[in-house]
Amino acid sequence: MCGIVGCVGAENAAALLIEGLKKLEYRGYDSSGIAVFTKDGIRVEKKQGRIAALEEKLAADGYPKGTLGIGHTRWATHGVPSDVNAHPHSCGRVTLVHNGIIENDYELREELEREGAVFLSETDTEVAAHLLDRFYTPGHPVEAIAAAMKRLRGTFALAILFSDDPEHLYGVRKDSPLIVGIGEGEYFLASDVPAILNRIGRYYLPEDREIAVLSRKGVSFLLPDGTPAPEKEPLTADWSVDAAEKGGYPHFMLKEIMEQPETLRAAIGPRCAHGVGGILKKELPDVSGVERILIVACGSAMHAGMVGKHAIESLARIPTEVCIASEFRYQNPILKKGDVVIVVSQSGETADSLAALRLAKEKGTPVWAIVNVVGSSIAREADRVIYLYVGPEIAVATTKAYTAQVALLDLLAIRLAYERKTVTEERAERLFGAMNRLPETVRLVLGQTERIRNLAKFNREAEHSFFIGRGQDYAVCCEGSLKLKEISYQHSEAYAAGELKHGTISLITPGTPVVAVATTAALLEKTVSNAKEAGSRGARLLLLTRKSLKPRDTFYRDLLLLPDEEELLMPVIAIVPLQYYAYCTAVERGCDVDKPRNLAKSVTVE
Ligand code: F6R
User: Fold this and answer.
1) Distance between CA 171 and CA 188 in Å, rounded?
2) What mean pLDDT do residues 594-604 have?
3) Could you tell me which of 534, 541, 464 has the C-alpha nearest to residue 499?
4) Which atom of ligand 1 is nearest to the CA of 401?
5) φ, ψ (nearest 5 deg) of residue 547
6) Is the CB of residue 544 less than 8 Å from the CB of residue 455?
7) Which ligand 1 atom is the nearest neighbour of the CA of 603?
8) How many angstroms separate the Cα of 257 from the Cα of each of 33, 299, 394, 434, 576?
9) pLDDT value at position 2?
10) In sequence order, what DSSP letters do the residues of 7-68 get, joined into one string?
11) Which of 113, 132, 338, 586 has its CA 20 to 30 A from that of 503?
C-alpha cells in the first residue's frame, strides 16, 4: 500500500504534491518522491524516509518549478526502503508512480532483461515503467497504457508522465484506489480524497482500466480501445479534513477492518499467480525435508499461528507446535534436523520474537518469517521472508495484518500438502479456488455490521464475557477475546468449549455474554452442547456459525450466520465480525479505540 498524487494546472505543483503526500503518509512512509515538468524537462526528486526528509532535500536543492507533476509515498513491498527504490521510476520517456502489486513482475523483468532492459531498482513498479516505454510511440500514450495493462497482472493505480507530452497527466487503476479531483482550473489524481481535499470541490471515481487524461483544460476518461468511457457523475467532496485522514472512518481500526477484502487480496494474489503448485514458490523455493514446524510469535500473531498449526497438521500432516515467543527463548527448546521455525510478526520488531529467531538460528535451525514491515529486523535476519503486503497498520489492535497472517499460513499448508501429496489434487485445487475467493467472502461478511453494532450496544455494560469453541474455532475465540478485552477493557476469556465445565462455568451468571464459535461441522454438536450448558446458567448466547450448520433449535439469544466456505478458511471469515464486535463495544464504552491504554503497536522490549 502506498499513496499517490498528481496535479495539473496548479501554480506550484511541487508544493502541492508535498502537501498531498503528507495527508497520505498513513499509507506508508518508507520513502517519498515527486516528478515535475519544468522548462528543462521532467525533474525527479526522491528520498528514503518520511516526507520531511524529501522536504529537507528540496529545501537544499530548490523546489522544481512547474505546474504539472506526480508524487508518491511508499510502503515497501518489492525491495527495501531506499532512495533507489523510491518512486517515481523512469524509463525512456516514461516516469510514473504506482500503488499496488504487480504479481507477474518477476517474469516481466526476466523478459525485459532478455530484450536488454537494465533495471536500477528492485521494485515491481520499474517493470511497469519499462513496459510502458516499450509500447510507447510519441503521440500515442493511451495505446501504450492499454498495451501495458494487458501484460500487467495484479493490482495497480498508476500516475504517468510522458516526457514529450508536457500538457498531460495520465492515470489508470485496477483494484487499487484512484480518484480524479476537480479544482478551480486545476485537476488532480490521488489515492484518496484526503490528499487533495482542500483543493477540490468534486471528484470522479474511475472504473477499473479506464484511462484518465488530465490537462489544464479538464479531464476525460477513455476505454483501453481509445473510445470515450461511459459518462460518470462527479461526487461532492464534503468530508471534514480530520475524517479524511482516516479515509472517512472515525478510527483507523475501523478503516483497517473494512479494508480487509483489499488487503487479503494483496496478500493472497501474488502467491496464487502460478497455480496451486506455485504457491509461495518465490519466497520458499524448496520446502522438502521439513519434518516439524515450530511457529513462534506473540499475541495475535501467536493466535494466527494456532490457526496455522491446525491447517498444516490437518492438510500436510506435519507435526506443528505453536510457541509463545517469550517462553520459547527460556525453555531451552529441543531443535533438531528437519525442524523449521516460522516467526510471525506484523511489525517485524517484536523483541521476544526477534530473540526467539536468533536463538533458533544459533542452534542452526532454518527460520522463515511472515512479516508485514519490509526491511524490519525479523525480515532481515530470517532465512526466508513472506511479506503480508497489507500496508501500514496504524491502530494498535491488529486486524488486517492478523487475517493476512492466517491466510498466508493457510496457503503454506496447501503448498506443503500439495507437494507431499497428503491431499488429492482435486482437494488442493478446491482449497486454492477458495483462497482466491476469500477476499470477496470477507466482503460479504462485512455487510452484517448493523446487527453486530446492536449486539455491542446491548452487551456494553457487561463486566465479563466468554468465547468458546473447539479446534480451529478455539483459536478464533482466543483472537476474538483478545480483541475485545484489549480495546474495550471488558474482561474476557477464551475457552476450549469442553473446558468450560471444568471450572470457569462458575463465573457464568445471568446475562453474561458468551460467544460460541462453531464453524466446524464435525464439532458442531459438541460445541452446541457446551453453549447450552452456559445458556442454562443464564448466559446471553451469541452463536457464530455457518449458514449450512444453523441448528434447528433456537437455544441461543443471538445468531450470526457466516457464508459457507471450505472449513480451512473459516477462521479468517469468522474473526472479521468479532473484530467489528470488539470495535463497537469499545466505541460504546467510550474507549480510545486506536490507542488502548498501556499498549504499544510495536513491543520492542522483552
Ligand atoms: C493485538 C496485537 C498484539 C500483537 C503482538 C505481536 O491486537 O496487535 O498482540 O499481535 O504484540 O506483534 P507483532 O505481530 O508486531 O510481532
Assistant:
1) 10
2) 74
3) 534
4) 14
5) -50, -50
6) no
7) 11
8) 29, 18, 11, 21, 7
9) 86
10) EES-SSHHHHHHHHHHHTGGG--SEEEEEEEETTEEEEEEEES-HHHHHHHHHHH-PPP-SE
11) 586
Minimal CA–CA distance to 280: which of 290, 297, 267?
Answer: 267
pTM as predicted: 0.80
- The SS3 assignment for 342 reads strand
Question: From ligand 1's centre to the CA of 398, what distance in Å?
Answer: 6
Can you tell me which atom of ligand 1 is nearest the CA of 303? Answer: 10
Please say if 591 is a catalytic residue.
no
Report the C-alpha gap between 93 and 161 in whole angstroms. 8
Which residue's alpha carbon is nearest to atom 11 within ligand 1? 299
- CA 251 to mean position of chain CA atoms: 17
For a mutational test of ligand 1's pocket, the pick from 300, 385, 482, i.e. the residue with the most ligand atoms closer than 8 A to its C-beta, is 300
Please give the grid coordinates belonging to residue 388. Answer: 503480508
Residue reference for cell 499467480: 273
CA distance 317 to 238: 55
Ramachandran category for residue 389: left, alpha or beta (phi over 0 → left; psi -120 to 50 → alpha): left
Helix H or strand E segment including 580: helix 570-588
Q: How far apart are CA 160 and CA 327, in angstroms?
A: 51
**Quick check: helix, strand or coil at residue 211?**
strand
Instruction: Convert the pLDDT of each residue in 522-564 to its tens digit.
Output: 999 999 999 999 999 999 999 999 999 999 999 999 999 999 9
What is the per-residue pLDDT across 47-99, written as a single tens digit (0 to 9) for each?
A: 999 999 999 999 999 999 999 999 999 988 888 899 999 999 999 999 999 99
Cα–chain center distance at 277: 24
Strand (E) or helix (H) holding 308: helix 299-311
Quick one: which of 444, 415, 409 has its CA closest to 573? 444
Distance in angstroms (rounded) separating the CA atoms of residues 388 and 398: 13
Give Cα separations from 9 to 33, 62, 235, 579 (angstroms): 19, 20, 21, 44
Q: Is 397 in the pocket of ligand 1 (CB under 6 A)?
A: yes
User: Which of 206, 131, 148 is CA-nearest to residue 176?
Assistant: 206
Strand partners, 436: none
